[in-house]
Specification:
This protein is of the alpha/beta class and about 350 residues long. The protein is built from 12 helices and 14 strands. This is F-box domain-containing protein.
Amino acid sequence: MNAQSSSLLFCIPFELRDEIYSHLFTSTRLTFGSRVANDNKTIITLHPPPHALALLRACRRINAEIDKSWLSQVLFKFEDPKTMLDKLAGLSFEDLSLIRYVTVRGDSMLLTYLPKRHVHHRLVSVLKLLPGLQLHQLTVFGGHGDKFQYRTLDELVRYGSGWRELRFISHSSGMLGYAYYCFDEALRQRYQRRPQPEYWQSVVDERDGVQSCPSVVVYRATRPGHRGDVLRAQTREQIQQSDTIVSHTGASYASDEYGTAEDPVLVGEGERSKEVMVVVRRGRHGVDYQEKDGRPLLSNFDIRREFPGRTWAEIRAACIEAWDGEDRPTFVRQVDLYHDIDEYIWTACSTYNPTTRDLL
């Protein structure tokens, strides 16, 4: 301890040392999980650099000063929802409630039960298995298919908890501009778009109360195909959809037909590849957004309905690996290297289908 006390670090006031610790951890991200490579034959498994939390092992005094404060400062990044549960569901309620920043891929979670029954569970249901979660910011990267991204975000806006601010980022403007029509009224209600952000604003107003000042804002990149543009103020613009759109032929579509035709502004030539980000902020006054144990079940797609009263560890034990024999993919391990914690790349998918080898 004498040698440690003579260190230059301990010659400065604790308040300054605490600033140094905070600067380090707020620029650190811990990445876990796997994603499917574009060849659909290789699964890339990412893990943090070995030195990511080295400061916690530098000496006992530093470890004691930092304690658990690093949990509220680092960014936890998960390539798939299953890994998010593997890492977070085993934490104590106290430790989980300290985490403030999480990024996760928005694909559904594929579980395989005997005898080889493949079931997909959507992200809003997955989060219900993390009671205690109360993030400052949850970032979700849209997965496969425009209408499935829209549905994922719609469910998070309607039923999601555990976050104060949600950032949903899509590589395609088609998420807010696709056409969907089906004679099955239930499917139409499920996938038909609404004018945004007006509609989602009405949803959070009803959830939290207008007086609590919730908000929904939609940003769109100004350049096609430029990854990360939608995060920067100088390369994005705020957009507002109208409940009446006019197609390139001059035909107009009223609100009762909204979403049954493509939005030419968003999916026209050179427009679809502009990134979109929807930012949803829960009410600021008197809104308890922490994920609670025992919340009511979500319709018929809640994972808790299939496994009543079970923890994630118990659910995991009931599942089997989704591949065998020639269906088994190639695994490659990589260290997550980055210059900025908000850096990202777009990959085909995070879910491997062992029966068809399709990206889901």
